[in-house]
Amino acid sequence: MNNEEVRGYFDQYWKHSSVLRNWFVAYGIGALALAIYNKGIFFSNPEDKKVFVSLIVWGISLQVLLTFLNKVIHWFVYYGKNLIEFQTTWRYKISYKISKCFIIDIIVDFCTMILYARALWIFTSNL
Questions:
Q1: In this structure, are residues 96 and 81 in contact, taking their beta carbons and an 8 Å threshold?
Q2: Checking CA distances to 112, which of 57, 61, 78, 87 falls within 20 to 30 Å?
Q3: HSE-CB for 113 with a 13 A CA cutoff
Q4: Which structural domain, as residue segments, surrounds residue 80?
């Protein structure tokens, strides 16, 4: 596989990753607005509403933290690729190693889906 083909696959991954992250956050914010501004319409049990909101907030928080982590890590890697001396720093070395750990993204996305699925189950059981 040549570099152009590899780059094409990465670009597709990055687009889908960004879309998924945006959907996670947009869904979460929309769900929070629905829960907060519709008093008593969707949740007959106030405890269900608290759990629902908590699950959504945790899902949004995971996605925001992952986005921040990816931003910082990839900036250090980018900076190191452009400034060879920076590659000897601990920030570059750690960031480069973490940037290769795709499992972090998978785990955070999976946890977000579980949190949202549980919140959706609570929501639909109150309809």
A1: no
A2: 78
A3: 8
A4: 3-125
Side chain identity at 123, as an amino acid letter?
Answer: F
Number of folded domains in the chain?
A: 1
Q: Would you write out the chain's pLDDT as a tens digit for each of its 127 residues? A: 778 877 777 788 888 888 899 999 999 999 988 888 876 677 888 899 899 999 999 999 999 999 999 999 999 999 999 999 999 999 999 999 999 999 999 999 999 999 999 999 998 988 7
End-to-end CA distance of the chain: 52
- With CA atoms as reference, report the closest residue to 50 among 60, 35, 65, 63: 35
> Among 44, 6, 13, 7, which residue's Cα sits nearest to residue 109?
13
Which among 94, 28, 36 is positioned nearest to 62, based on CA atoms? 28
Q: What share of the chain is helix, strand, coil (3-state, %, to 5)?
A: 85, 0, 15
What value, to the nearest 5°, has the Cα angle with vertex 61 and ends 55 and 67?
140
Task: Please identify which residue in the block is written with the tokens 């960031």.
Answer: 95
